[in-house]
Amino acid sequence: MPFYIIHHSTPLSKPQCAAIASHITTTHSERFTAPRHFVNVKFEYQDPAIEPPTYVGGKPRRTNYIFAHVRDGGSRTAADFNGVAAEISQFWDTEIAPHLARSTEEERVTGKGAHVPEEEREVSCVA
Question: What is the mean pLDDT of the chain?
Fold first, then answer.
């Protein structure tokens, strides 16, 4: 069964989590004609005040990412999974990101900011 883990250091409200979970479920089930009840979505909040940060390039950074455990093979191609990744990313950009606080340059450098600049993003699957 597909299992999506949303790791986030940006606080998300319950309605935001519900919207993300619903979008991922719909996107996955429609793309791969899977029953909706097969799709699992889990949220893991990393509170930067409590937990050690994620390190990117050897520097502490607040990160938001989605890790998907999905079955490959058959008619499922890397292009299909990249399409799902792009749809989920677009949903985040249009429905979630506008409601998040923007990071200052100092927050970006120290890894305490909530906004990930476009040039630091990666939207693809690893097959």
Answer: 80
